[in-house]
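User: Thanks for the earlier help. One more: 2-oxoglutarate dehydrogenase E1 component. Can you show the sequence and predicted structure together?

Assistant: Of course, both are below.
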Amino acid sequence: MHQGIMKAWLESSHLNGANSTYVEEMYEAYQEDPQSVSEDWQVVFDNLPHANGASADVPEAAHSKVRDYFRSLALEGSHKGSARVTDPEVDAKQVKVLQMINAHRFRGHQNANLDPLELWKRDKVSELDPAFHGLTSEDMQREFNTGSFAHGGETMKLVDLISALKTTYCGSIGAEYMHMIDTDEKRWIQQRLEPSLGRANYDKTAKTRILRGLNAAEGMEKYLGAKFPGAKRFSLEGGDALVPMMREIIYRAGEAGTKEVVVGMAHRGRLNLLVNILGKKPAELFDEFAGKHSDALNGSGDVKYHQGFSSDFKTPGGNVHLALAFNPSHLEIVNPVVMGSVRARLDRRGCDDGLEVLPITIHGDSAITGQGIVQETFNMSQTRGFKVGGSIRLVINNQVGFTTSNQDDIRSTEYCTDIAKMVQAPIFHVNADDPEAVVFISQLAVDYRNEFKRDVVIDLVCYRRHGHNEADEPSATQPLMYAKIKKHPTPRKIYADKLIAENTLAADEVTGMINDYRDALDHGDCVVDEWRPMTLHSVDWSPYINREWDEEYPAQMSMDRIQNLANKISYVPESHKLQSRVAKIYKDRTLMAKGEKLLDWGFAETLAYASILEDKKRIRITGQDSGRGTFFHRHAVLHNQNDASAYMPLRNISDDQGPIDLTDSVLSEASVLAFEYGYATAEPGGLTLWEAQFGDFANCAQVVIDQFLSSGEQKWGRLCGLTMLLPHGYEGQGPEHSSARLERFLQLCANHNMQVCVPSTPAQVYHMLRRQVVRPMRRPLIVMSPKSLLRHPLAVSTMEELAQGTFQNVIPEMDSLDSNKVDRVVFCSGKVYFELLERRRKENITNVALIRVEQLYPFPREEMLETLAQYQHVKDFVWCQEEPQNQGAWYCSQHHFWGAIPAGAELTYAGREASAAPACGYPTLHAQQQDSLIKTALKL
């Protein structure tokens, strides 16, 4: 707005002359929150002159300049005779009214009625008291402008305004949203809360549905408690409103066009949701309580409150596919798994805005603040490679935490949900004993998520009627709380009494609903009216079930085809200026494509990706440096040095190729690996690959490896073809940049649960990656990937080896040694092979054969026996490794070597001595150790 227009506007208003103080105070309110003043005033203040020549992007002008500016306009208007004087005291109080409105938006939640037990000791917020703002009883019947408060028109009596503010912001809902930066989002929330005073007027049908949900929640727990007394079930009692909440979220999402909902939660209330939302048959759950074993998984199985489930759920907008993720006892690690699964489903549907698939994660009040994976998952929520269009996060806040904790012990913030403020998520605290408020805020949360594609949090403030589990005695540590709980009516009774009192339902109708539900449990059939037979399978896993390791697969391809792919991945447009070192790499790749240079690691790896994409399969690669590669070898994303634009040769293979997402991830291992695990469990057809910057960093994701990757099939029957590239090799870089902890993966190997490979040539990595997709078996692939071998002069391959070869689990002796003269055979894996080879050649040793074991698990016994057939006369066998003796493959794999060598032969160890650290930190000591183990292996 030009100054002349602003001046004319001011002259035509009553805000001049004697009202300069009012304007200044109005501006102060605007500075605190722009929405606290009317839209007209927002326009005026938005267009104020800026201090010291600042740009229009700087919102705040110097206060003295603003004051002088308004006073000059007011004075000028007075001289023209257009001003009229109003009461400065009234105008000053008008500003105070606006400040009071703003105070309720900011801090009303701190005096809201959130605790069903009324045990919270909360200080009175003085800013919510009219007297704090100088408003007296004489002002109560005065009309004041309500600014942007979206209820009751432009003006209201102060007494009515205060009542509306208390009802909206200090009732059963405590809304925290003023910490958000985006004005549109804040205004949207105000428009949803304030016109209705934070309440909804539900009809009899809706209220009956809410009561049915509470009946089901309570009825299920009481039934289990009576039928299986003392058994662990992690009861929902006290937080019963979770059941109608989930039902309404799914209804609302279905109406908006959502096709799938993926849920992640820990123990509390899980069995209740399985039966009352997902439609698991009660009879099946009762069998699990009775200890009956199911042969469905043919594995170890897992406890019932870790189990997942899938079903279809009828909504007014169509059926919605529900999936409850399997999870271990790590309370929050399932959350990034859910997000990864959702991203895979969205990618498959081609849905960029997230509408078609909704993630819901359910947390405990201690876990959401105590587990760092929550922060990591929040941090990913808006990043390019991991966004899912926002999630709905529900907290079952039973105010106790795990067993004996109180709030002073479990967090340093006022609310357990304060962690969500890091991503500007709105947070809605709601009293779980007011189920209509719960449903209202649940519907609002779905709409917010769909509108803004961002996370939203609901803090369901409730209590826990029993201990952490049903064998626990909570009154030992929480005597006052549990004395109150014993006397407190259940949520179902509170709401049923309310509906009876308001004549919505008769008492006999309420009783009939209870009896009907119990009868349904007795029959053992599904108790969810909305359950439908599952037809909305997100992906077909049938081609990958019951597949074995040794199945044949098409490994070879024509030279013409691989030559064409080589040309595609080495081409860069002339206009795309490369950095000099990258340009040299691509110049070499052009020579490799022409057959004028042997293939290096990066070229062969990229060829594998290209062939998979040409087969119309999807590839997803993430890692902290995956675009270029930590060791400057991949360069799949090429950055123009002139304008920073990016070019990906792998996106230019063919017109109908498969999609590829190659993303540099957030600086996290646990959440990213969990995300990729979730992605791979929902996307079996392509290649999902996570690369550690250094293999050692996988330590930070050990819980994902232990509780999902290595055991998910055994516990839950969940197949997963995730590939992990873990740089591994002793290059003298110290204890944190040497070992990918090979021994830990081998310790987890059993039941053919995963593959552990140590490829040593470009051809091997090419075939290994292709095999992971082309072979129909889907199990995790753990790769000890190289560092120095990426550019080692001996670690090269020919185009023919790629086109006509296959992955070799065992690579026999490659030099032309006379096997009859060999009296020692050295087994090894990885980089150490080339050091052994170079030293053997240097010393002209002809009696020691070198055999590379490229797949340590499943151990390739048949290939090993075939390789050793020519060495049956040898009695001296050695396992040589770079790792200390208590690490690496020695302890976990030597029994395989003992079983393969000839009878009567000996197997000895050549490597570093046992060590508490993975590697030494001194380069000279490293070199001495390396030289020693090479000499030991070669008998020097």
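User: Great, one quick takeaway?

Assistant: The chain is about 40% helix and 15% strand.
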